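Input structure tokens:
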């Protein structure tokens, strides 16, 4: 049974990307040593070049059911498209097992067909090879998945059936089975993430909820905490949010006991005390993600969230894609913010301070990635929209990947944008090759 089609692509096509330095173990080529306490420009340059050469980063980006693999060049900020795989259905979310060189993909048609698929990652090229047989998740569509630090289990969020599930992995990284949950690990309405903490003993599940309609009341947003042991999820606590608020994703500070939550409904950033598997009952910090919080347009929402590996900055996407049905052209964008909000984090308290809104140069930044070296941020603009200019002319802005350089002060510097085809750019992530 073929679960994926693998396609090699000549490395002539470039799209923005990154590469970087090694982890301090790099050696400078033979040269006369400098006197103790003195540095030489030549040796510094050689060391920097060696570090860039020995550290290789690939970027994976989906376009519907196709998952593409690019090689990143740090010096040029260019990405060479090297290969792709085709999943059974549209890519939903992806997570790597860095130690065992595997990649796990949730794939779904959004209706009745759903798969969890594993791939081996070639440690030299980043190319993907199907590994074992896919499984059919009992919870349906996998909207998010993450791996425990030991690499033994995957936690999965299922937005349609409002629950979390777990898959067991073998010693070789293959998918062994789905672990039955007794009782079911039920969540509140529309769970959007299932994220292990660094201990691997807790899984946090943000819930989006839903706004009220003419026929149904509001479904409140939530944040559910599960204890995790031997493949079993046991609910510990639930935070329920008020009207108009719903959580999408969260990320942890690498050093401070803090969890940052992107409130999709409400366009807020919350920061919670977090430690030993317990989250505070109320946020320590609460701030808007928008440039114009008093001018919120239809379908204005917060999106993905990532703390920089150095713990000094946080990045969060603002998304807007609402359109009008009539003139000047069907599908014309009605306005809103599509940007990456950049926050500086206080070194002792972790308090976020908004320092920049960087336009994404496209629409609906559903996901973005910070490369493992911390040097670049790449946005996947999911949607194509028409925009009416001042002269009344309508211009089509296609789906795209937008590449930013991350400056030392955390601010983003636009480098380039690459237009994509007609398929949704649903997920993007970056991965350091083990060599």
């Amino acid at each position: 049974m073929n679960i994926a089609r693998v396609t090699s692509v000549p490395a002539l096509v470039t799209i923005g990307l990154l590469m970087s330095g090694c982890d301090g173990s790099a050696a400078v080529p033979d040269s006369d040593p400098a006197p103790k306490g003195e540095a030489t420009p030549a040796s510094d340059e050689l060391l920097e070049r060696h570090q860039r050469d020995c550290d290789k980063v690939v970027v994976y980006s989906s376009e519907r059911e196709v998952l593409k693999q690019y090689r990143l060049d740090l010096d040029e900020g260019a990405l060479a498209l090297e290969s792709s795989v085709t999943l059974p259905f549209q890519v939903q979310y992806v997570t790597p097992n860095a130690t065992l060189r595997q990649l796990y993909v949730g794939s779904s048609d959004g209706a009745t067909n759903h798969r969890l698929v594993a791939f081996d990652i070639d440690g030299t090229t980043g190319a993907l090879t199907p590994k074992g047989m896919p499984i059919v998740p009992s919870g349906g569509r996998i909207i998010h998945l993450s791996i425990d630090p030991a690499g033994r289990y995957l936690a999965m969020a299922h937005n349609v059936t409002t629950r979390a599930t777990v898959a067991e992995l073998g010693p070789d990284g293959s998918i062994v089975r789905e672990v039955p949950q007794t009782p079911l690990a039920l969540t509140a309405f529309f769970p959007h993430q299932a994220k292990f903490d660094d201990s691997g003993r807790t899984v946090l599940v943000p819930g989006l909820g839903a706004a009220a309609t003419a026929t149904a009341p509001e479904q409140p947003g939530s944040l559910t905490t599960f204890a995790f042991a031997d493949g079993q999820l046991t609910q510990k606590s639930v935070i329920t949010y008020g009207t108009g608020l719903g959580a999408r994703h969260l990320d942890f500070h690498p050093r401070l006991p803090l969890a940052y939550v992107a409130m999709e409904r409400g366009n807020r950033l919350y920061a919670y005390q977090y430690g030993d598997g317990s989250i505070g009952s109320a946020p320590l910090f609460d701030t808007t993600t928008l440039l114009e919080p008093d001018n919120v347009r239809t379908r204005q929402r917060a999106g993905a969230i990532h703390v920089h590996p150095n713990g000094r900055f946080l990045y969060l996407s603002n998304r807007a894609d609402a359109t009008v049905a009539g003139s000047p052209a069907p599908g014309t964008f009605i306005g809103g913010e599509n940007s990456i909000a950049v926050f500086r984090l206080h070194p002792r308290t972790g308090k976020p301070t908004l320092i920049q809104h960087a336009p994404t140069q496209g629409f609906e930044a559903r996901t973005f990635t910070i490369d493992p070296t911390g040097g670049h941020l790449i946005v996947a603009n999911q949607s194509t929209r028409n925009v009416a200019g001042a002269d009344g002319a309508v211009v089509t802005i296609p789906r795209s990947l937008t590449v930013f350089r991350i400056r030392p002060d955390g601010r983003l510097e636009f480098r380039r944008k690459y237009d994509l085809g007609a398929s949704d750019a649903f997920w993007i992530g970056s991965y350091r090759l083990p060599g």
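Residues 8-48 have pLDDT under 50 and may be disordered. Helices lie at 41-54.
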